[in-house]
Amino acid sequence: MVAVWSKNMRQAGQGIKHLMAVVSILSLTIVLMPQYVKAETLDHAKWVGDVPIMPQLSIEPGLGFAFDNPEGRIVTIYLTGDTDPNQVMAYYDQALIPLGWIKKDTYIWHRRNESLTINKTPSAIKALWKIMLRPKS
Q1: 64 and 129 co-located in one domain
Q2: Which tens digits make up the pLDDT trace of 86-111?
Q3: Which of 65, 101, 113, 120 could pair with 96 as two cysteines, CB 3.0-4.6 Å apart?
Q4: Do 114 and 89 belong together in one domain?
């Protein structure tokens, strides 16, 4: 009788260990899944540093710049493309919010100690968009 009880307790202990392993794996999956979904969603995008670039826009390499100062980094990216401003804003809402940016206004997002703004800049030749990343003031 004691041998049967002991065997049942060992099997129950193994069942609990198995259950704990499954719970651990599920928990890890739940924690990591949002990161995977974010990366998958933006996989098709071009990037400048950690700023996604809307696929319908082209980077103007001669116009942008980046540097670090004691308060943080300053990055300016110029993009061209005849894309509707509403589509541009919709893209950046979708792309930036999952990356931790919080929308503060129509063209302004904040994340930690940084501010990102997007503006359509007047240009005689073609539509020019300016993305500016800088320390929050």
Answers
A1: yes
A2: 999 999 999 999 999 999 998 999 99
A3: 101
A4: yes
